């Protein structure tokens, strides 16, 4: 039997967690008029619909540190420090493969990050399309960059030179401002002689 002080302590802890969840849910919501993806004018209606769909998905956030769980829409998520999957990772791989030379070791690390991100992106897309019942090609395409932004990879700016037709003429030109990978290098005060947004490229291509 739990005594009264323990019961009060438990209730207080539950109240604190619920308040924390409410704050985090609020952070996932986009203010009216704000957008997660910049797109050509003719695509805006599709992406407005996608932002509503993805926003609805992220409303269902549950965090329970007492069980070590983070769930969004009944899907388990994890939080990982950005630099651990970018600069820190590449530095470690270069040290591990130092005997192969700096450039070869860097290439090994970049190939690994790209392949992992590509697989994650491909499976995230399949899961999200299934979870949100998206079958129309443009709806599925529109959801991708919005999900990308909501999960902290980067902002997405799609160029008007793109041709998002679901056929052999498909091409998408975009930039990723606020990339988590570029940010990890900026925060470290280090510069790179080569592109560092490896996982961004892998995930979005997946």
Characterization of this structure:
The chain has helices spanning 4-28, 44-58, 87-96, 102-131, 137-150, 180-188, 198-205; strands at residues 37-38, 61-64, 69-72, 75-77, 156-158, 174-175. Strands 1-5-6 form a three-stranded mixed sheet, with helices on one face. Strands 2-3-4 form a three-stranded antiparallel sheet. The protein has one domain. It is built from seven helices and six strands. The longest helix has 30 residues, at 102-131. It is mainly α and 206 residues long. It starts with a helix and ends with a helix.
List the helices and strands and how they pair.
Layout: H1 4-28, E1 37-38, H2 44-58, E2 61-64, E3 69-72, E4 75-77, H3 87-96, H4 102-131, H5 137-150, E5 156-158, E6 174-175, H6 180-188, H7 198-205
Parallel strand pairs: 1-5
Antiparallel strand pairs: 2-3, 3-4, 5-6
Helix pairs in contact: 2-5, 3-4, 4-7
């Amino acid at each position: 039997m739990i005594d009264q002080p323990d019961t009060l302590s438990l209730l207080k802890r539950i109240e604190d967690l619920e308040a924390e969840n409410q704050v985090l849910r609020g952070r996932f919501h986009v203010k009216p008029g704000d957008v997660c993806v910049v797109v050509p004018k003719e695509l805006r209606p599709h992406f407005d619909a996608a932002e509503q769909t993805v926003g609805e998905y992220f409303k269902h956030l549950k965090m329970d540190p007492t069980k070590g769980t983070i769930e969004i829409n009944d899907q388990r998520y994890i939080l990982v420090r950005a630099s651990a999957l970018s600069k820190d990772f590449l530095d470690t791989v270069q040290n591990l493969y130092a005997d192969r030379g700096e450039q070869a070791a860097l290439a090994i690390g970049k190939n690994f990050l790209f392949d992992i991100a590509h697989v994650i992106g491909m499976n995230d897309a399949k899961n999200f399309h299934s979870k949100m019942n998206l079958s129309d090609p443009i709806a599925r395409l529109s959801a991708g960059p919005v999900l990308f932004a909501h999960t902290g990879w980067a902002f997405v700016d799609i160029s008007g030179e793109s041709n998002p037709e679901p056929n052999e003429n498909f091409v998408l030109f975009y930039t990723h401002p606020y990339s988590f990978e570029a940010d990890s290098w900026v925060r470290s005060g280090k510069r790179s002689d080569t592109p560092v947004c490896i996982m961004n490229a892998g995930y979005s291509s997946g």
